[in-house]
Amino acid sequence: MATVEKFGLALSGGGARGFAHIPVLEALDEMGVRPSVVTGTSIGAIMGAGYAAGMSGAEIREYAIKLFANRSDVLARVWRLRTKRVKDRISETSAALGQFDAERVVDSFLPERVPHTFDSLELPLKVVATDFYGWRPASLESGSLYPALAASAALPILFRPVRIAGRVLIDGGITNPMPFDLIEDDVDLVMAVDVVGGPASKENRLPGTMEGVFGSTQLLMQSIMAEKMKGPRPPDILIRPPVSARVLEFLKVKRIIEKAEPAKEDVKRLLDRALSASLVGS
């Protein structure tokens, strides 16, 4: 194995399940290992932005738990983001009833430590969205950061699409839920973290409408990732933290993080093995 000089980190989408990325970031901090580049989709892009901005995994944990600690405060914040005027509920030619403005949501929930431009980040970051009319992934890595993060997380059932540089963009998980391929040519070693998950029920019951929609999206993303893993260069290290939360269970942040704690040892063991092997083979 060649010497590892550059290490890349790819963080998947997954909604509230994305809080399981936090123990992985903490493990890297505890090892004293810093990636050369970070890429992410949806919640993975948001977590990656905090990390690329210089926040430690522990700081991201503290912020996330504090942000979602009080149900009433979270609901009040979301209520303030609702569309108030009828004319704002019409998105160009179609109704946008029930959809939130993703850019306003990102601006409201991101920590102040995250800058507004890619150039102000401490680490290079590649954010993945989906070009709706282009039928392909869109990699965003320069210019305004917040619209890029909003586009990456703009799942159509919840958020209006985001327009950037003439393109109409939606959630990146639709086309590239775990974007390890975006950085494989930039680094010697790629670690990918999958928190997408999928539908699960002990009773094998029929899902409700929303559960069916989100579960179907998870199945789509799992299919895409499975095909990508068959490619010429899958990630050198794949981490799948244990997490059982549903996509929108953000109020369970503390439990999600605690459930994912075992991923720390997986990260340390696998990364240490890869780094050791690179030294032996150099």
Features:
two-stranded antiparallel sheet, 282 residues, 10 strands, globular, 9 helices, 37% helix, eight-stranded mixed sheet, alpha/beta
What report would you give on this structure?
Helices cover 37% and strands 15% of the residues. It has 282 residues and is α/β, with parallel strands linked by helices. The strands form 2 sheets. Strands 1, 2, 5, 6, 7, 8, 9 and 10 form an 8-stranded mixed beta sheet that branches. Strands 3-4 form a two-stranded antiparallel ribbon. A hairpin with a 4-residue loop joins strand 5 (125-131) and strand 6. Helix 1 runs antiparallel to helix 3 (57-67), helix 1 packs across helix 9 (263-281) and helix 5 (102-109) packs across helix 6. The protein starts with 6 loop residues before the first strand and ends with a helix. Residues 84-97 have low confidence and may be disordered.
* Annotation field: number of helices: 9
C-alpha termini separation: 7 Å
How much strand content do the residues show? Answer: 5-15%
The major pleated sheet works out as: 8 strands, mixed
| Poorly predicted runs | 84-97
**Structural class category:** alpha/beta
**Mean pLDDT across residues:** 90
Instruction: Kindly state the number of beta strands.
Output: 10
Radius of gyration: 18 Å
Q: Report the principal-axis shape.
A: globular
SSE string: EHEHHHEEHEEHEEEHEHH
